[in-house]
Amino acid sequence: MAGRRGGTATLVAALVVIGWLVVGGVAGPYAGKLGDVSTNDNASFLPADAEATRAQDLTAQFADQQTTPALVVYARTTGLTDADRQRAAADAARFARVPGVVTPIPPPVPSQDGQALQVVVPIDEAEGERIGQVVDELRAIAGADRDGLTVDVAGPAGLLADLIEVFGAIDGPLLLVTLSVVLVILLVVYRSPVLWVFPLLAAGTSYALAAVFVYLLADHDVVKLNGQAQGILTVLVFGAGTDYALLLIARYREELHRHERPWAAMRAAWRGAAPAIVASGGTVILSLLCLLLSSLNSNRALGPIAAVGIAATLLVMLTFLPALLVLGGRWAFWPRRPAVDQADPQTEHGLWSRIAGFVARRARVVWLTTAAVLALLTIGLTQLGVTTLGQSAMFTQRTDSVAGQDVIAAHYPAGTGSPATIFTRQETAGQVAEVAQRVPGVAAVRPVTQGSQAGPPEPNAPPKVVDGRVEFEATLADPPDSDGAERTIRDLREAVHGVPGSDSVVGGFTAINVDTSDASARDRNVIIPVVLLVIAVILALLLRALLAPLLLIATVVLSFLATLGLCALIFRHLLDYPGVDQSFPLFAFVFLVALGIDYNIFLMSRVREESVHRGTRPGVLAGLAVTGGVITSAGIVLAATFSALAVLPLVVLVELGVAVAVGVLLDTIVVRSLLVPALSYDIGARIWWPGRLGRTDRKARHAR
């Protein structure tokens, strides 16, 4: 009978594997097509009621054709020559023939110091992501620096082109680096030439399956996929997927010591590990879906995209991976094949058994010391510096758009090429223009006239009127992505809003940054408490207690704050970054807390399981001994996969990758290995209050 069941189980496992291989073959190509449905237009991510969004809608009414300007700037420190001016004029004529460029191109604008010349090249916004290709053609025409003349293509179009190039690395280098990192770690962890294949194949299938759903959602405009979300999806699926695989494989290895047949061992392992894996994945999914409460479209999109990735990973890791392991049997662990010896799992974890013994002897000292060290690290939060990263601080390397913006700032009013737009009623236009001109940081205010978008306005030309409104362009004295420019926009809005009956609206590139910053601050205040509440409910249901979830959440929050403090010191003094982007604290919180709670779930679900049979304090030690190695390995895998984001030369993703890597390592090595076990051991059976386990444990001890 057992042989017949074993044959049936093997056949079912084979059919599951074949089915998933077919799914992977069909879904695989979609992983390379995500870039086709990705967009990187920051303005499209703003909430509909943001002032900058309303300004964009008004811009569409005033412009015959909406454009994104590329600023081609020629500069020579010794002064431009006639040959330089002729070259710029010839280039402008060639720019006009590039498909996607809106003509006529305005005449070149010389700087007052005679050292720079700027050509504004309007590019049709309808080109979408192809704006990057148009900019590439402009750069090819303009050519490289030579004979002391520098040539750069900057402005909003130049910046967008550089971002598109950065995110283009996601489908290639980022995926390759992530796969390589996971492969190396699996080889080190398992020391087997065979076993690493199974989790890596399952993780790859998870990513392919997730890519199908994300592609369809983005293609049908259900979500807005951008390069940042795409990069996070890649490392999240491989990192979390490998974590789940490590947990299942570790439990499977334990059960192979108790069961002769692989299918019986897998059935026991699945029953033991699946609840923790499902609870862990469910916690991450629900935490990510809390991003739907964000007022920023980019955050709202990231939540479902990442949640889809985790859901796909759960499905694959709980079906495909077990089937692979059943077919692999004991030989998959070669050369360290587990024998049927009924060994206590703790005997295979000598190091972690010794750590558990240390925790038992010094429980109170351990948790007080580790908590104090983490609290000390939070002092670094004073160095964090949450800000809007300027264009020059956005990239880890000097791009063409950054170099061009620096030249523009040196020879022109820094806001040239990216003016603020002011829309107001026709009857208050004169008063609004006068008030705007008096705002500190505003270099010039000019009306948009009929045909003025093709060049300088004619003297005394009347403003263009659309539905009773007129538009002004306000050139800012500071670079458009600087803190100074943002302060000017806030002052400008306050000034023009104060004109009675003007119904003024201020938009533009800098206004988008201002509204994004305000929305990010609001999101942090709303989403973080909701995520904590969701996690508390899940932990309470899983552990059937209230005190344990509250203490676990407290350790996760302390770990998060300590991570931010440590990262602030790393960013400021080691990487020399000026600060962190407005989106960083929220993203870091969601990923660190959601993923950090994973290890709480892995540990405490096993502790509870052991406590039922052994009692709470012995259960804590047994749970730590058998899960310490796998949790640490899982943490190293997740930290390493998020570190792969460093291959993308974008500061915000490098910072997020470093933060998750540092936080996960801190969480697994300090919090999960020492703080939580020591605190749980010190509290004892009361940790399960008000659940039945705590009461029965105490009664059993009194009876003894």
UniProtKB/TrEMBL annotation:
Keyword Transmembrane helix annotated: yes
Superkingdom field: Bacteria
Pfam families found in the cross-reference section: MMPL
Keywords: Cell membrane, Membrane, Transmembrane, Transmembrane helix
Cellular component annotations (GO), alphabetically ordered: plasma membrane
Localisation per UniProt entry: Cell membrane
Membrane-spanning segments: 12-31, 166-189, 196-218, 230-252, 273-296, 302-327, 365-386, 526-543, 550-571, 583-607, 619-640, 646-666
Membrane topology of this protein: Multi-pass membrane protein
Domain SSD, chain residue ranges per copy: 232-327, 553-681
InterPro entries found in the cross-reference section: MMPL_dom (IPR004869), Mycobact_MmpL (IPR050545), SSD (IPR000731)
Family statement: Belongs to the resistance-nodulation-cell division (RND) (TC 2.A.6) family. MmpL subfamily.
Name used for this protein in its record: Putative drug exporter of the RND superfamily
